Amino acid sequence: MMITRRTLLGAAILVPLEGLAQTCGKLTDPQTEGPFFKTKSPQRISLLEKGAPSSLVVTGIVLSAQCKPVAGALLDFWHSDEEGAYDNRGFRYRGHQFADAQGRYRLETIVPALYPGRTRHIHVKVQAPGRRVLTTQLYFAGEPGNARDGLFEPGLVMRMSKPGEGRFDFVVEA
Fold this sequence. Notes:
By secondary structure, this protein is mainly beta. Helix content is 6%, strand content 28%. The chain contains one helix and nine strands. The strands form two sheets. Strands 1, 4, 7, 8 and 9 form a five-stranded mixed beta sheet that branches. The protein has a four-stranded antiparallel beta sheet with strand order 3-2-5-6, with no helix packed on it.
């Protein structure tokens, strides 16, 4: 069988979506936004502050239930700082961005600290253009606090390819 250019290009398009079949179809579970959400966060892909102790890069794709990338989806992230506190006066460790034409996003930040009663987590709101907002939280695998946090949801754990690199694909109404 001869491989045509069309066959090769078609296969190349599918490669980035490999492994997403398990994700598609089921919408990402919603969770509470908690008491620390603030509107009007700055648009930025890096939440790193000067002197931040370490960095975390979270990447992924925003998909529809039909497994199609959601171009221009809004993602709004916020989390605690290095000491487990939320900035309620300014916008430390807060920011929003838009997914690219292939539904991809990339967030650079820190690993948030623990605070009483909660495991380590990152809050996020995701919205396809013109659709309902999904509010949820992302969790870290292997955290001792996961077992005792009443909000922890195993389906919201980021896949960590190596330390400092997490991945989570959101499935939203689109």
